[in-house]
Design goal:
Length: 571
């Protein structure tokens, strides 16, 4: 039994009789505040009181990454990504009580997230309490964290929400006042690099269930290729230097391949290499324009053509403003990076699709920080579309094609149906509350369906898919599935387009390589060669304790089919 399942089996007992709710045990939270409940608590549907965490046990709680452990009377979590979220939402007036401590805090961001806002604590640098997001717009820090508590000691939080304002108390002292919150749809405790111990968490308000999500685990077999080093090709590596986020393009001769990637995590000078034998060997780093050193975000590369059939390579670099560089001689020489308009975005033009002669549609996302100069401060995720009518020389103003009330949709990956009549876009879900999502268009991107949650088997970041000769899809991505044997690894999904449309799990998953640090890997390029060989390329922490570097893996699906059949036979 996992910690998660054992915790959920230890729920507080509650029996309802009409408008009366009886809680057992009688004393259930924060006696240190002098707040004790005995016997029968008067309640109503509009003012339900739930003890989410009590003496190390919890209910209606979801763990991201790994379940939190029980230590004495507290629930303990630490590390980036190991957040604790409530599986409830609430509207109107509310009261929230939390008793917790934070220790080992080395950097910023530990604290409480409410919707898109953050009440948090800086680490070793400023040591300040910080207020972030629309709830605290234009509000200044109330002071140093040491003014309110000492590291490792228990803190008594109280949050009171009303139609006029939201007030935050620490140890009964009012420390911050924010705007009203009509509907809390996301509440998380975020330890980041600290160690957070939660003794109790109690909410009183109009509590509702969150919308039902699809199952968080899948039942597909996983074929593990991580130890099959004969499939692995080193593209680039530099001791002590972070190399990340590559994309590739296969040119018309089906042998020449270009790969671009930053020296750094997204931001950093763009490196380019060329392979003349379809990825078996790679050139030294090639000369690039001086402006490529100024790239602020993940570079992407695509081959486009205009109405007269003139082909060009276009490289994009994001944040504000989005810039592009053009080559009209198959990547031998390039123009300097130049803005494509008065707008920006994140992981820009991760997918580009032809929608007519010389016409292309490109997709990207932004969370309000870069879509225009100075940002909006919204931190609301939108997926955008921009188009070109002249083979990539000029691009239109972006328009929103997808958003979601509780999910953070981003990093679109586009797949066209086998008959060419439909476009499906797979989307990363960055709040980590749901599976990944998809949207669809039957009119070349003019209109789109509402986002629909995908099966757990397709949950991940930065989906990149191509069809093999037999019509199946190979989709590469970073594994962020909630319950998976390969968390944070470089994986691929194999199935049909119809599997995606019908919400089926697919045929099988593949672990391509074992990422040795967190979930920092796999912004992949996928190319299909003339003999149906798949060449997929990405970055990752492939060696324990060393900086990430660029590798590719080569395979054919008939090889993997035999492995899957043998696995099934053994079962």
């Amino acid at each position: 039994m996992t910690i998660l399942s054992s915790l959920r089996s230890s729920k507080s007992r509650r029996t309802s009789f009409g408008s009366l709710i009886i809680y057992f045990p009688a004393t259930f939270w924060m006696a240190s505040w002098g707040l004790v409940v005995f016997g029968i608590l008067q309640s109503s549907p509009a003012s339900e009181m739930i003890s989410f965490i009590e003496k190390g046990h919890c209910q209606h709680v979801r763990f991201h990454a790994t379940p939190w452990s029980i230590d004495g009377d507290g629930l303990v979590g630490e590390g980036i990504g190991n957040r604790l979220a409530l599986e409830k939402s609430w509207t109107g007036d509310f009261k929230l009580w939390i008793t917790l401590s934070m220790a080992k805090q080395k950097e910023s961001a530990a604290g409480i997230r409410i919707n898109e806002s953050f009440f948090g604590f800086e680490g070793k640098k400023s040591q300040e309490v910080f207020l972030k997001g629309p709830l605290f717009r234009d509000k200044k820090s109330p002071g140093k964290s040491k003014d309110f508590f000492a590291s490792g000691t228990m803190i008594h939080f109280k949050v009171l929400g009303s139609q006029n304002q939201t007030r935050f108390f620490i140890n009964d002292q009012l420390v911050a006042t924010g705007n009203t919150i009509p509907h809390v749809h996301r509440f998380e405790l975020v330890p980041y690099r600290s160690k957070m111990t939660v003794k109790s968490l109690v909410l009183q308000g109009d509590v509702q269930d969150l919308p039902t999500s699809k199952p968080r685990r899948y039942h597909l077999p996983t074929i593990d290729l991580a130890k099959e080093t004969h499939r692995q090709i080193l593209v680039d590596r530099e001791k002590g230097q972070y190399l990340g986020h590559p994309t590739t393009v296969l040119l018309d001769d089906r042998k020449t391949m270009l790969c671009v990637y930053p020296k750094g995590h997204g931001r950093g000078a763009i490196v380019m290499k060329r392979s003349k034998d379809a990825g078996l060997t790679w050139s030294p780093r090639l000369p690039t324009p001086e402006s490529w050193k100024t790239s602020q975000e993940v570079p992407t590369i695509h081959q486009l053509s205009d109405r007269k059939g003139k082909k060009r390579l276009v490289l994009f670099s994001g944040l504000y403003p989005i810039r592009m560089s053009i080559s009209e001689d198959q990547g031998e020489t390039w123009s300097e990076l130049q803005p494509i308009g008065d707008f920006g975005g994140i992981v820009t033009m991760g997918c580009v699709e032809s929608i007519g002669p010389g016409r292309y549609m490109a997709l990207f996302h932004d969370d309000g920080r870069f879509i225009r100069q100075g940002g909006t401060g919204q931190r609301k995720f939108y997926v955008y579309k921009t188009t070109t009518d002249d083979g990539g020389l000029h691009w239109s103003k972006p328009v929103i094609i997808a958003e979601h009330p509780t999910a953070h949709l981003c990093e679109p990956g586009l797949i066209r149906s086998p008959n060419g009549k439909q476009i499906t876009v797979l989307l990363r879900e960055n709040s980590r509350r749901h599976n990944s999502f998809m949207i669809q268009s039957d009119d070349e991107g003019k209109t789109w369906t509402r986002p629909v949650e995908l099966p757990a088997s397709l949950t991940g970041d930065r989906h990149t898919g191509k069809y093999t000769r037999d019509g199946r899809l190979f989709i590469s991505f970073r594994d962020t599935t909630h319950e998976t044997p390969t968390p944070g690894d470089w994986v691929a999904w194999v199935g049909t387009y119809d599997d995606i449309i019908q919400g089926r799990e697919g045929q099988y998953r593949i672990r391509l390589m074992d990422n040795r640090k967190s979930k920092d890997c796999a912004y992949p390029g996928v190319e299909i060669l003339q003999d149906d060989t798949i060449v997929t390329t990405t970055y990752g922490h492939w060696t324990e304790g060393e900086a990430p570097y660029i590798m590719s893996v080569r395979l054919k699906l008939d090889e993997i089919d035999r492995k899957a059949a043998a696995m099934k036979k053994d079962d």
